[in-house]
Predict the structure.
Amino acid sequence: QVRLVESGGGSVQAGGSLRLSCAASGGIRRINVGWYRQAPGKQREFVASIRSDGSTNYADSVKGRFTISRDNAKNTVYLQMNSLKSDDTGVYFCYTTAIWGQGTQVTVSS
């Protein structure tokens, strides 16, 4: 069973950038992977996903600012986040079929 480990979170000012990584314990070439986030007091929400064929999907709130990508050789999926806003604050989770990572905290101060 694949395990997912997120990293790259931190604190940044509004307008800044962060790159999150999701490292898988096994091969990811054939699996779809998504990023979700959960703000304090709110439900977990979809952010972006990338399929095995490389096609991507984004939540409207992050389109044009976030980019999801994958490096199958490194078993890693990335989330490049630019022009960050305070509303982007939350714990970011990596997900594939029925498997969640432990999350990484992103805090954006205005």
